[in-house]
Amino acid sequence: MNQSIAKSISLITVVSIIILCVTAFYGRTAAYAQGVGKQEIEKTEQTVSKDVTGDAVKGNKQEISADDVKDVFLYDWFKRGGLFMWPILLAAALAMGLIIERFLFYKKAKLKPAEFLEEINQALDSGCIDDVITICREKEMVISRVLLKGLNLRKLGLDHVEKGISAAGSIEVASLEKGLSVLSAIGNIAPLIGFLGTVSGMITAFQSIAAADQVSARLVAGGIYEALITTEAGLIVAIPVLAFYNFFVHRVETFVADIERISSEIAEKMLGENG
């Protein structure tokens, strides 16, 4: 029951973080879209008003407000972020691919098979190691392969069983942790890339301010606004990536804990038989 509750809490936490990031992203870009769309509409109105009647201006205004705000703002938001947006986009694509691959891999590996663990516990409670071996041979999953590697060395003694389980477990854990270091690196580096882009943008903005004859609040705010886009993008990528990374690490740690617990119980049963 406790494991089920912990799993539910972890899942809810991850989903909540994703929803929060998506909401922040779309809320931010939607607000930006309204500003950009309004500016584009005003520019177009001024141009069209020179050549057409008031009715034409009104119709063109409605057409632009329906199209520009929907189609332009994401591209323009990305473009305003500058060159540093490209490595952030690449990191996001790589992280998404790894997250999907790990989800599918863990699902296939069946790291937490409740029925299998229940059968193993019943066999251990009955004191029959042969039943444990039979169950492991019938079930094709990661934990059964690890246990079977050690139990096949049962005749050689308890030390060989423990070493066999430990060696097989290390191999499987290395496979389970594949790609997690990359996710961790992306989660830590993406905000730094964004911050570097912000610093670079701030330098450019202050250079423009220094070169300007007249400094307006719009000029200062516009430069700072564009510089902060990369930091925002880096955080949008990093937060869900780190959430998934910790979720996957928890899955692997739970698997290792199950292996250690079952190995300890097997060792106790074997010592009891020898005694």
Short description:
With about 280 residues, the chain is mostly helical. It is built from 10 helices and no strands.
Report the C-alpha radius of gyration, rounded: 29 Å
Helix content: over 70%
What's the tally of helices?
10
Shape: rod-shaped
Number of domains: 2
Tell me the fraction of residues in β-strands, as a range. under 5%
Total count of strands? 0
Terminal CA distance reads: 35 Å
Which stretches are poorly predicted, pLDDT < 50 over at least 5 residues? 47-71
Secondary structural class: mainly alpha
Largest sheet: none
| pLDDT averaged over residues | 75
Question: Can you put this structure into words, describing what you see?
Answer:
By secondary structure, this protein is mostly helical. It folds into 2 domains: 81 residues; 194 residues, no CATH class. The protein is built from 10 helices and no strands. Helix 4 packs parallel to helix 10 and helix 9 packs antiparallel against helix 10.
Helices and strands, with pairings:
Blueprint lengths: L1 H47 L5 H18 L1 H9 L3 H25 L4 H13 L2 H10 L3 H10 L6 H19 L3 H32 L5 H58 L1
Helix pairs in contact: 1-2, 1-10, 3-10, 4-9, 4-10, 5-6, 6-7, 7-8, 8-10, 9-10
